[in-house]
Design brief:
260 residues; alpha/beta; 2-enoyl-CoA Hydratase, Chain A, domain 1; Lyase 2-enoyl-coa Hydratase, Chain  A, domain 2; 4-stranded mixed beta sheet; 47% helix; binds octanoyl-coenzyme A
Amino acid sequence: MAFKNLEVKIEEGITTLTINRPQVLNALNRETVEELGKAIQDLGDDENTRVIIITGAGEKAFVAGADITEFKGMTPVTALEFTRKVQSVFLQIERLKKPVIAAVNGYALGGGLELCMACDIAYSSEKARFGQPEIGLGIIPGAGGTQRLSRLVGKQRAKELTFTGETIDAAEAYRIGLVNKVVPAEKLMAEVKSLAEKISSKGAIALEMAKSAIEEGYDLDLYSAHALEAKAFALLFATEDQKEGVSAFLEKRKPLFKGR
Ligand code: CO8
């Protein structure tokens, strides 16, 4: 899996994707978005990947948004094509059967915050800053930001961030529920890896069912969402991992899940 703007490191079930354009604060140009989509698709089927971490190269940025240089000369037709492409890649992350963790090591702005919000869990460095600055460019968030931000932090906070374009620090991002945890910059990757290891020791099918029940149930009415949960719960009783989990508990030992 070799890419120009994306570094892929697979180690012991945990794969780290590093957006690698530090000279432009890891801004997402079309090529990088294509590469990210391809990597996510391939890793979905990769037996050596149980959990994915997404981060940015360098010390300054996670992703500082879409590559603004590509907006010059963009027409409504090409803008529509671009936003649909980015939206589909971020939805692909959300729908992937494996957990995806954002390690936000710096600026997460515009498309960068939208990428962070599409991940299942986000840990942030104390140095990171978050925002949807698109309004300052005369546009609006176009990679799911108007939708995911309001769902995560509430409509009024989402409107304030989107209308002003102002950035907030990591402590405020944590306070309003944008990230799960804030840690010192030098500890970020170790903390994220330890979380990834904890998750990767669980059963892959149960993880997939938990993720899809939360994602698919989120926008359903409570009754339909309960029905969805019940089916996912019941299906897990067909797995070896379920039998192993229960046996291990009864035998007072650690379970060894095989993803079967
Ligand atoms: N696009 C292109 N280049 C960028 C971007 C970007 N988003 N962000 C930074 N760069 C470049 C700078 O131009 C600069 O290049 P050069 O060295 O050649 O001058 C280099 O990166 C370093 O940046 P700065 O010198 O500006 O660094 P500062 O520390 O002074 O400032 C900031 C850091 C505050 C992050 C500043 O760079 C900035 O404001 N960047 C733009 C942030 C922004 O507006 N992002 C939103 C973009 S729009 C968007 O994301 C829409 C999303 C919807 C569609 C699809 C999403 C993928």
